[in-house]
UniProtKB/TrEMBL annotation:
It is found in: Cell membrane. Pfam families: Mycobact_memb. Keywords: Cell membrane, Membrane, Transmembrane, Transmembrane helix. It comes from the Bacteria. One of its GO terms (cellular component) is plasma membrane. This is Uncharacterized protein. Belongs to the MmpS family. The keyword Cell membrane applies. Its main location: membrane.
Amino acid sequence: MKDLSFGGPMRRRWTVIVALVTVVDFSVTRLRAIFGSDNQAFRPAADELENTGLNPKRVLVEVFASPGAAATVNFLDEHAHPQRGDDAPLPWSHTLTTDDPTQVADLRPCVGVRGRDCPHCV
């Protein structure tokens, strides 16, 4: 009877696996060094990403109509919270000042009979 030994095939597979892991590790390390992801000098600190507020934005929103008319005015304030002015006398204006670069100005005036002429002012 022949003696079966698993040492030879296992030893060969083990060396191939170790060689493959070594080559992949070396390649990844070199690629990270080339593209600078390991370099701590180029990473911005957390305090550098804060908005310094040096360039405030000012938005003037206005609603015009014949003098003496009234309207329901829906708008977003400086903190992006919805505000509503019922029966605001026209002409109407509001100034928003913010240093948030993602702030959106939104204005929805409703002039006329509430619910009939303007469905979103019900």
